[in-house]
Write a structure and sequence with these properties.
This protein is of the alpha/beta class and about 180 residues long. It has helices at about 15-35, 50-55, 110-120; strands spanning about 5, 10-15, 40-45, 65-70, 75, 80, 95-105, 125-135, 145-150, 155, 175. Strands 4-3-7-8-9 form a 5-stranded parallel beta sheet, sandwiched between helices. Strands 1-2-11-10 form a 4-stranded antiparallel beta sheet. Strands 5-6 form a two-stranded antiparallel sheet. β3 (about 40-45), α2 and β4 form a beta-alpha-beta unit. The longest helix has 18 residues, at about 15-35. The radius of gyration is 16 Å and the shape is globular. It binds inosinic acid (IMP) and magnesium ion (MG). Inosinic acid binds near residues 73, 103, 104, 108 and 110.
């Protein structure tokens, strides 16, 4: 499918399933090479569910764990900027080496919020991995350690990313048509 319609908008193919697989292969290799000890991957739901699943099955670091957290910051195709609290961290994560798995980093507001909430838990180290990054929209100076692909300021859907909750199941990533 080269074009899809979601709600009232039209999207065109942007990053194929094959390209996504190649991006994930490279990212997992780079993460593995760091040999972070007993890493705790923290995937940010809902958007990163497929990305996290695909990266994790390629991670070969001993004692790797994964947890899922959830925040809400987006409605429609524009970031609303308001982020709620972090849910999904139950046990003690103090002293852990964290790798955040994000589907996309846009303004960085969500990432900053997650970082500050995790720091309150006294974790040891936090690294950030994101499938997609919008450098022109990014307003923060938090280092992003692993970037799958940098993209223009287009709104994208598919492979976990949604437009008002639909489109997450698409195997390719699509961008909004102008
Ligand atoms: P930020 O807080 O502006 O960096 O936005 C981060 C969150 O907004 C991501 O985790 C996504 O859930 C959502 N988001 C940002 N850009 C897009 C997009 O192009 N498509 C779908 N969701 C997006
Ligand atoms: Mg998200």
């Amino acid at each position: 499918m080269n074009n899809v319609k979601l709600h009232n908008k039209y999207f065109e193919m942007f990053i194929s399933e094959n390209e996504i697989n190649a991006i994930i292969h490279t990212m997992a290799k780079n993460i593995n090479e760091l040999r972070i000890s007993d890493p705790l991957f923290i995937a940010v739901l809902n958007g990163s569910f497929l990305f996290a699943a695909d990266v994790m099955r390629k991670i070969n670091i001993p004692n790797a764990e994964i947890s899922f957290i959830k925040l809400t910051s987006y409605s429609g195709t524009k970031s609303t900027g308001d982020v709620n609290k972090l849910i999904g961290i139950n046990g003690d994560i103090s002293g852990r080496n964290i790798i955040i798995l994000e589907d996309i980093i846009d303004t960085g507001i969500t990432l900053e919020k997650i970082m500050s909430l995790l720091k309150k838990e006294n974790v040891a180290e936090i690294k950030v991995a994101t499938l997609l990054f919008k450098p022109k929209a990014y307003k923060k100076d938090i280092t992003i350690n692993f970037i799958g692909k940098s993209i223009p300021n287009d709104f994208v859907v598919g492979y976990g990313l949604d437009y008002d909750e639909i489109g997450r199941n698409l195997p390719h990533i699509y961008k909004l048509k102008h």
